[in-house]
Amino acid sequence: MATLPVSAEEVIARFGPSLNFPPSQGYAGRDEPDEVVKTHCCFCGMQCGIKLLVKDNRIVGFEPWEEFPFNEGRLCPKGVQRYMQNNHPDRLLDPIQRVEGKGFSPIGWDAAYDGMIAEIQRIQGKYGKDAFAMLSGVSLTNEKSYLVGKFARVALKTKNLDYNGRLCMVSAGAGNKKAFGLDRASNNYSDLAHAEVIMICGTNVSETFPTLTHWIWQARDFGAKLIVVDPRLTPIARTADLHLPIRPGRDSALYGAILHQLIKHDWLDHDFIANSASGFEEAKKAVESYDLDWAERTTGIAKEKILQAAKWWGPAKTSFLLHARGIEHQSKGVENVLACINLVLATGRIGKPYCGYATITGQGNGQGGREHGHKCDQLPGNRDIENPEHRKYISSVWGIEEKDMPGRGLTAYEIMEAIHRGEIKGLISICFNPLVSLPNNNMIREALEKLEYYVCIDFFLNETARHANLILPGSLHEEEDGTVTTAEGRVVRIRKAVNPPGNARTDTSILLEVAKRLGAEKHFTYDSSEAIFNELRIASKGGTADYFGITYKKIEDNMGIFWPCPSEDHPGTPRLWEDKKFKTPDGRAHFHGVPYRDPGEMTDAEYPMILTTGRVVSQYLSGTQTRRIGKLVDQYPEPLLEIHPKTAALYKIKNRELVRVSTRRGSAEFPAQLVETIREDTVFVPYHWPGRKSVNQLTSGHLDPVSKIPEFKVCACKLEPLGHAAPSAAETKAYASA
Amino acid sequence: MNTTAFRTDQEFFFDPQRCIGCKACEMACAECETNGQTSMIHVDYVDRFLTTQTSVQVCMHCEDPVCAKVCPADAITKDEFGIVHSANTARCIACSNCVDACPFGVPKKVEPIDLMMKCNMCYDRTSAGKKPMCATVCPSGALFFGSREQISKSRPNSTPVNTFRFGQQLVKTKVNIMMPKGATELVVDSE
Questions:
Q1: What is the pLDDT of residue A58?
Q2: Between the N and C ends of chain B, which has fewer C-beta atoms within 10 Å?
Q3: Which has more confidence, B44 or B109?
């Protein structure tokens, strides 16, 4: 029974989201902190260094950490305000349990654990081990990600563990493994500095990775050409040398057409193709007919612009290609990634200074989290859970029989579908808010309501957790030691600054206690985060993501170490592929034939407009943290429907008019924002908001066949102006929408 | 003033084309306890209908500050380093002369406290040898605090300009704006 115990409005009144603002003179003690803790931002994959000011077990402010090499003190507004999640009035201070008709009431830890263990055992006894699933997330450190992976397989004994990286970097990971045999940014960002051409594909860098902007401008200061592929004129696209306003969902067509031009004009590195790569003929064959006329028709980009991109990209001596969710959040996300990689390989510009390629990993520990823990098909060190050798090795590290290691489970969206079908009956979640972040969330809500038992570990009562039977108050980023791996592949140290408040406990101690009560204590005897990391080092040893040579001390001494780092005397690997020895079975980089195919849902007479989604600079993902920070909410208080004025004129939509947007899955109402910075055939809504203000009521559950990433970036919609202006953002209170 | 660690080789540079409108500068500025959570730097869209372009306005710290000239209470002073300080709270009468006179529209009358407030280039930080908060956090390098040598080396295709022409009037400032290479002044209003 996982329906809400009382109305959503009543839950919100008690548990928020409510807005935290600093006192007008700042927090007391900021001038004389007890401690200044060098750590990292809790949000995106840039993992900017930041110093937190601590007074009396409270974070009272921040100082820029100018010595940290990636960001040198730079921060985005989320980073500046990150400390406001600490001492938040919404913070959960006790375990709470669902009471029908009453809401949630506090319960002691022992009673909470007893009830939870009884339900896990009941469900697994009745329906089988795999009927209890776990969902996790990559805001967790490497240590916690590793622990979750081991916990689910060894203590909970379920195969159905997956994570919110499934909505993030899995297409890039799968593409990189196919092409290079390894899943990591090939270069660190210092290789941007003197690249002649930078192509950024489907990534709103200036709003989602603001501190990366500086690195791109550094290159531009020395004459680099910047090409931006995006359906919208984002702040980074505004000043680009070339903006390619692509029709959403047509990305592989564009990169195929550019490859066609590289071949036609012989802008190829024949030596690299012959000696270090394979599959070129297949890639060539796939794009044979992709001439400029076809490309213009398919992508909606003027052919002169496509040719210009090829002319800059082809003959350049140095270059850097970056992509992110714009091309990855598609039902052909992996194909889009492979089509981009083809452009890098065709010109042989990889493994050399200022010759780079990288996905920009989105979440704080999106990189490390996907290597060591909670991905349904993976074991630590980026090993394959179906590979007998890999299973054997990890089983030996964990001290279990290989036969007891569960196999490959369902992916995140598939887990929700299996719950909806009644196949999965119980759920434990940590660090994941699928009711806001997964697509087609009316289905997600129905699924949650069908669960027999749901327990959530979180520091705030996120929207999904309102459906839980039990919520265990876990820890914030600044309440535990650990490491994360940044988008560059740099392993950095997260430092504990304060203790969890009230009766909240660290995530680690909660997982260890549950493991113990499930009878797996002997496998979970760590006395510190460092002890978990040291086991992770051994577990990753010999895998492609090899951390064996990385120690806490080494990270601290060097302000981060790039993996792979196979031995303690190894300095780490900031740039991959300098030896041109790739990790594929044949040691070569692989081209792939990428024939274009349409997105999962095309426009038609009933749903004639393309809907695409994304983020804004002041919010982060499902907003569990950032929709509680007052100034970040004030900066962009409600989701707006970006629409081109010409399209708006056809529908007679006025600025700020409320518009109902509908798809085959649901409808929602948003104020219109008329802007010339978007394609005429496309509307955009950012996705950070819950309930009636969630655009993920509309997005589609079409999945990439390989990576199983949902197609957030394109679906078909219709628009109905409602004939009146939207209420003010202050009235709507979208941050806490029911 | 003798104990200050203000670094005279460090200058403030602003490059509007790099601004991404993220407001990290506003957020960081407001954190300063002397501002009482009010930002002294302002980021706005130029015209969101047409473009995502944003503009930042920070106090330019004029060589001959008109805000100080028109102040009837002598509340605004320029110090030996060229910093034009926010109005002395004991003297400010909130007449708004400075608000009306500033060619860059910088000083604001803060209604709840009935005082003029403006940027003093983070004097608490700069006088201790640190960089102003906004220029430290700016993620795009639109705001930069450092030496003239650093900026000319790192941005060879831009020239810092600190001369503004408003009609017949020339205004020279301590803060520089980055212009295309070779530029010597910014003509704000040619009439």
A1: 96
A2: C
A3: B44
Among chain B residues, CA nearest to A79: B24
Calculate mean pLDDT across residues A411-426.
Answer: 98
Q: Which residues of A touch B29 (CB under 8 A)?
A: none
Query: How many structural domains are present in chain A?
Result: 4
The pTM of this model reads 0.97
Written as one letter, the residue type at B149 is: E
Q: Name the 3-class secondary structure at B30.
A: helix
Domain containing residue A667 = 609-736
**Is the same domain home to A40 and A103?**
no
Answer whether A573's CB lies under 8 Å from A548's CB. no
- Do both A161 and A183 map to the same domain? no
The C-alpha atoms of residue A519 and residue A170 are separated, in whole angstroms, by 33
| A233 touches B at CB < 8 Å | yes
Q: What is the mean pLDDT of residues A122-130?
A: 98
Burial (Cβ within 10 Å: 0-12, 13-18, ≥19) of residue A89: exposed
For residues A238 and B52, the answer to whether their CB atoms sit within 8 Å is yes
CATH of domain B11-189: 3.30.70.20
In chain A, residues 47-106 whose CB comes closer than 8 Å to chain B: 61-62, 64, 66, 71, 73-77, 79-81
Nearest Cα neighbor of A167 from A714, A710, A713 is A710
pLDDT value at A514 more than 50: yes
Q: Check which CATH number belongs to the domain holding A632 and give it.
A: 2.40.40.20
Across the interface, do B36 and A207 touch by the CB < 8 Å criterion? Answer: no
The label of the residue with tokens 């197609």 reads A711
Query: Contact, A327 vs A201, CB < 8 A?
Result: yes
- ipTM of model: 0.96
Q: How far is B168 from chain A (nearest CA, A)?
A: 32
A187 and A324 part of one domain = yes
Check CB contact under 8 Å for A80 and B17. Answer: no
- Best of B44, B137, B152 to substitute, by most chain A Cβ atoms within 10 angstroms, is B137
State the Cα–Cα distance between residues A135 and A96, nearest whole angstrom.
Answer: 20
